[in-house]
Design a protein that fits this description.
5-stranded antiparallel beta sheet, about 30% strand, Luciferase, domain 3, alpha+beta, 5-stranded mixed beta sheet, elongated, GMP Synthetase, Chain A, domain 3, 2 domains
Length: about 230
Amino acid sequence: DTVGKPIPETEIKISEAGEILSRSPCVFKGYYKNPEATEKTLRNGWLHSGDTGYIDEDGHLVVFDRTDDIMTLADGTRFSPQYIESRLVFSPYLRNAWVIGDGQPYVSAVICIAYKVVGKWAEERGIPYTSYQELSQKPEVYELVRQAIQQTNQHLPEAARIRRFVNLYKEFDADDDELTRTGKLRRRFIHDRYKVIVDALYDQTDQVHIDTTITYEDGRQVAIKTDLHVADV
């Protein structure tokens, strides 16, 4: 969870903006023939890392994310969506997670279950289903996902904890332009595609209607009309 304590002769502090700063005899002198980059990175003897994090109660440094990727809640609280997403998918039951909340009153998540793992879990408990879509909306599966989120929340500051979530009717897919070919979320694209879900997570409704089309690897397109449950954690 942490990168440990600073090595001897190294000082670490967190700026007011949450950026990790360091100072030590081994910090480099600057960029070769690039005084502008040097001035931006080295200020008053401190190296500005471009990373956001915090120092925990034991003096260990926790690195969240690149500062440019940090989001800010409506009250000014900063959080790292990628850090939270990476914690969520530690659960074998979660395939993808998309964490949102920039400019909003709290953090929310859109979850894609791991179909084979959750399917096996459901079969062992006699929970019937015929598709990913149906399985994702089962009350028992929502409770399973809620428990995974609660476990992640235990490792997050109070203000950065997930408050509401939706189980998506499919996994995020590069063929649908939702992921890059290296598996990274295309955040702006999926925000536009699933704006109706984003709105539902913040207008206190408990259900959102979906009417869309998904594309399979073989090029087939299937119309999806369904209602997704919006749940509190």
